[in-house]
Amino acid sequence: MYLRLPPRIKVLEALGAVADGRVKVLGDGRCEVISSEGDKTYTVVIEGGYAYSNDNGTIYRGYVGYPILACLMAGGKLPTDKELAEKLRGIPWKRLNEKFKKYEDVLQYIYAERGIDKERAEGYISMVLKEVGKLRLKFGGRSQ
């Protein structure tokens, strides 16, 4: 089964994980990603057109979860934006998602709170999602 494109906010969540140093590259296409709360570690394996991560979005919702995006960014397979990444450091994503309930509301809050140029951020998100779409990743390839 092909993984769907993630909600747009997940691109920023992934970039924030990279900026925070929460992505540990273990090898080509293999990473460990620590959650924004620091209470979970996600295992990511990307190989041969397959991607696996044990995050909820990937397993239960069938989309490319933010740990996969973060691993692809950290490995140089997806573009990053250093200036935007700096503004995404230290965001408590889980807490904000639970507080606002809607991803769009979280995005608007982050843009305002962190002084992020919405057009620039949205352009970056669109560019990353276009690249992810080209990868056509299938679910699978669990770690050994």
Outline the structure in words.
InterPro entries: UCP014422. By secondary structure, the chain is of the alpha+beta class. It has one domain. Helices cover 49% and strands 16% of the residues. The chain has helices at residues 9-19, 56-61, 66-74, 82-87, 93-100, 103-114, 118-135, and strands at residues 23-27, 30-34, 41-47, 50-53, 138-139. Strands 1-2-3-4-5 form a five-stranded mixed β-sheet, covered by helices on one side. Helix 1 packs across helix 3 (66-74). The model has no long low-confidence stretch (mean pLDDT 96).
C-alpha-based Rg, rounded: 14 Å
The main β sheet shows up as: 5 strands, mixed
Q: What's the shape?
A: globular
Strand order of the largest sheet: 1-2-3-4-5
Mean pLDDT: 96
Number of helices: 7
**Low-pLDDT sequence parts:** none
Q: Total strand count, please?
A: 5
Alpha-beta content class: alpha+beta
Indicate how many domains the architecture comprises.
1
Distance between the termini: 20 Å
Question: What share of residues are in beta strands?
Answer: 15-25%
InterPro entries: UCP014422 (IPR016618)
